[in-house]
Design goal:
about 35% helix; 10 helices; single chain; five-stranded antiparallel β-sheet; DUF5641; alpha+beta; 3 domains; SH3 type barrels
Length: about 290
């Protein structure tokens, strides 16, 4: 009879919203107990957060909610414009596996959002420590995001990009660098500022580009067995071939600049400039 009662209490069918919320709360509690056990103990027993394991949350005004979940307080608590989850986000450790999986899920759900958008969305309900670096890591290690980057944009960075956000297409103007402000209209004053910027940029920055920084060290070497994309100027990035580096060829200075790459159709020899190493996602470790 006992076995029958237990079986009759088992739920079947689709998961309800309440069941999903309860599952999430349980995962959050486990993650917090793993990462913030000392903080949880102090809050539960109304003790001050003074030891070395609780100092990292001192400025967050943390508290326990009705489900014994650690949340972050602050000035938003006085606002009536935001929901409870935004005013008091759940505290997470950026190094915990639960947080990592949460960021990956949101990155995919937001159709491969940028680090800034991913972070803004996460902080609607969560407050992960080290969130900015984790958001960058998730996007950097996303193979899909890497393959969608625009490598054919060879337009140079000019002063106009800082002034108007794009390349300068205006007609040539007389030299106004020596003119005084009283002689200039607003239009010519803006043009004068642009000319000053260009003059300083061309004299003080461009000459720095002569400094030899490429191929100075072996830091740019590509390791054997690295998964790479092979650039093809005649194809879009999504059509580039995948391959693995099977051999590298160092020059007389000891720096490797060429590699053999095994692809599905054979072995190709390409310079490092034509090879894009794909980010690898290492095995995740539990906890911190």
């Amino acid at each position: 009879m006992r076995m029958k009662r237990e079986r009759s209490q088992c739920k079947t069918g689709l998961l309800s919203v309440d069941e999903l919320n309860e599952s999430q709360r349980l995962l959050v509690k486990l993650a917090q107990m793993h990462s913030f056990s000392d903080v949880h103990y102090c809050l539960q027993n109304k003790l001050p957060l003074k030891n070395k394991n609780t100092k990292r949350v001192l400025g967050l005004n943390v508290f326990l909610d009705e489900h014994n979940i650690i949340r972050v307080g602050g000035r938003l608590g006085n606002s009536s414009s935001f929901q409870y989850e935004k005013k008091h986000p759940i505290l997470l450790c950026g190094k915990h596996r639960f947080t990592l999986l949460l960021f990956r899920f949101e990155h995919m759900r937001l159709l491969h959002a940028s680090p800034l958008l991913l972070l803004a969305n996460i902080r609607e309900c969560w407050w992960p420590l080290g969130a900015r670096n984790l958001a960058k890591k998730i996007v950097r290690e996303c193979v899909t995001c890497t393959r969608h980057k625009d490598p054919h944009d060879f337009s140079p960075l000019t002063p106009a990009h800082f002034l108007i956000g794009r390349s300068l297409a205006a007609p040539a103007c007389e030299d106004l660098t020596a003119a005084t402000d009283s002689q200039l209209t607003r239009y010519h004053r803006i043009e004068q500022l642009r000319q000053h910027f260009w003059k300083r940029w061309s004299k003080k920055y461009v000459v720095e580009l002569q400094t030899r920084t490429k191929w100075k060290t072996n830091q740019s070497d590509i390791a054997l067995d690295t998964l790479v994309l092979i650039k093809d100027d005649n194809l879009p990035p999504l059509k580039w071939k995948l391959g693995r580096v099977i051999k590298v060829f160092p020059g007389n200075d000891g720096v490797s600049r060429v590699a053999d790459v095994r692809t599905a159709t054979g072995i190709l020899r390409r310079s490092f400039a034509k090879i894009c190493p794909l980010p690898l996602q290492p095995e995740d470790t539990e906890g911190e």
